[in-house]
Amino acid sequence: MTDGPYDPRAIANLMLEEADRSGISVTNLALQKLLYFAHAIFLVETKRPLVSGYFEAWRYGPVHPAAYSAFKMAGSSPIDFRATSQDVLTGERFALEVPDALSVRRHIARIMSSYGQLSPGRLVDISHAKGAPWHFIADKGRTSVALGLRIPDDVIVNRFKFHKISVGESTVAGEPDEDTPLT
């Protein structure tokens, strides 16, 4: 397999494998935040994107539309399946090849170890930190044109350092169970 950027659904599948190994259940809302943190940290550390495509600023934080679509049938329940791909000519579905690069697998294990145990509400709080990429794009969308509220990689690189929040007993966002685009 190539050395990236990878199909976001394949990285999500790898994250779900790691979650299974660790006994963690993951909802689509949580998976979107975990995928974002994995991509952002990889981007900041290596100066290369982890996943292809883009993230958008949705109500409860960054969402990768392709990954969201692949797992939306899980709703607010823990995901118990893997994303697949489909041959556009035959309609046949097939398994996505997960990255075999040891550095990527270690990165995903580290992300799941650091963030995987956090509740969806805590992940949302972190993703909404003032000045961080989601906040910057959502705020920009309120005052000017922000095409599809996409979060460009350069904004992630320049603003990821703002992902700092105070740790308290309860989450600011509560415990949301499903994400929706910002309107």
Cα distance, first to last residue? 38 Å
Q: Main β-sheet: number of strands, strand sense, barrel status?
A: 3 strands, antiparallel
Instruction: Report the average pLDDT across residues.
Output: 89
Poorly predicted ranges (pLDDT <50, ≥5 residues)? none
Structural class given helices, strands, pairing? mainly alpha
Compute the number of strand runs: 5
User: Could you say how many structural domains there are in total?
Assistant: 1
H/I helix tally:
7
Q: Name the beta content range.
A: 5-15%
Neighbour order of strands in the largest sheet: 2-1-5
Write down the secondary-structure element order. Answer: HHEEHEEHHHEH
Shape field? globular
Report the helical percentage.
40-55%
Rg, please? 16 Å
Pfam families: SocA_Panacea (PF13274)
Protein name: DUF4065 domain-containing protein
Domain Antitoxin SocA-like Panacea: 31-135
InterPro entries: SocA_Panacea
Characterise the protein shown here:
The protein has helices spanning 8-22, 28-46, 65-71, 102-115, 120-127, 133-143, 153-159, and strands at 55-58, 61-63, 84-86, 93-95, 150-151. The longest helix has 19 residues, at 28-46. Strands 2-1-5 form a three-stranded antiparallel β-sheet. Strands 3-4 form a two-stranded antiparallel ribbon. The protein is mostly helical and 183 residues long. Helices cover 44% and strands 8% of the residues. A hairpin with a 2-residue loop joins β1 and β2. It starts with 7 loop residues before the first helix and ends in a 24-residue tail after the last helix. It contains seven helices and five strands, in the order ααββαββαααβα.
